[in-house]
Write a structure and sequence with these properties.
mainly alpha, 11 helices, 67% helix, globular, 0% strand
């Protein structure tokens, strides 16, 4: 799966050729996408907060169903559980599809889980921003890249104190690293997810530019 030596790394046209050489059949691709989307659309943040008697998470803060907004309830354990479950739903989708139908099916299922989290049909297609499911997809299709993501996130967070900026930079670097490690298909899927994630973080980007984005640990 992974390059064993420098000689097997990115080799220009070889990577481009592989990028457009998908072997998956249409029925399997559609099945992987449907399976991933259904898993990804499970709104764990909403389910957990309601089960804990905290009401509808969409009525507070940003209105998102992700862990960051769950944290605004003051329940750190619930936020951690939401983060973990939102990540694992993408991981499970990718691993199951990969096991039964191969790598390309796993990639599509992970991508679909990401999209399901962002646009869950059960909630009028209004979901979270997808950072947890982005990480979960990475865990399923390129496990060791999660360490790269974490290192970048922690490094940027230590310098800037901005959680959103840390996530944005990490998602930007991941596809580039994957491409140069001769994983063009994974790089392509993660690049598309990065673009969508940046779009979902539009308001955060505007606040970062204006200098009004909340820093890590900042109250109010």
């Amino acid at each position: 799966m992974w390059p064993a030596s420098a000689s097997t790394r990115f080799k220009g046209s070889k990577g481009v050729n592989e990028l457009f050489n998908w072997q998956i059949t249409l029925p399997i691709a559609l099945a992987a996408l449907a399976f991933g989307y259904l898993l990804g659309s499970i709104p764990f943040g909403l389910i957990l907060t309601r089960a804990a008697g905290l009401g509808d998470i969409r009525s507070i803060g940003s209105g998102n169903i992700g862990a960051t907004n769950v944290l605004r309830t003051g329940n750190k354990k619930l936020a951690a559980a939401t983060l973990l479950l939102d990540a694992l739903k993408a991981t499970v989708a990718a691993l199951v599809a990969w096991y039964f139908f191969g790598k390309e099916a796993g990639l599509l299922a992970g991508f679909a889980a990401f999209m399901g989290h962002l646009f869950p049909v059960w909630l009028g297609f209004k979901g979270g921003k997808g950072v947890a499911t982005y990480i979960g997809t990475l865990l399923g299709v390129a496990p060791w890249m999660v360490l790269v993501f974490a290192a970048i996130w922690l490094g940027v967070a230590k310098i800037s104190k901005y959680s959103s900026l840390s996530a944005l930079v990490a998602t930007l670097v991941i596809p580039v690293v994957l491409w140069f490690l001769n994983e063009p298909k994974i790089a392509l899927v993660m690049a598309v997810m990065t673009a969508i994630s940046w779009w979902k973080h539009e308001e955060n980007i505007k606040r970062l530019i204006a200098g009004t984005e909340s820093r890590i640990g900042q109250k109010g």
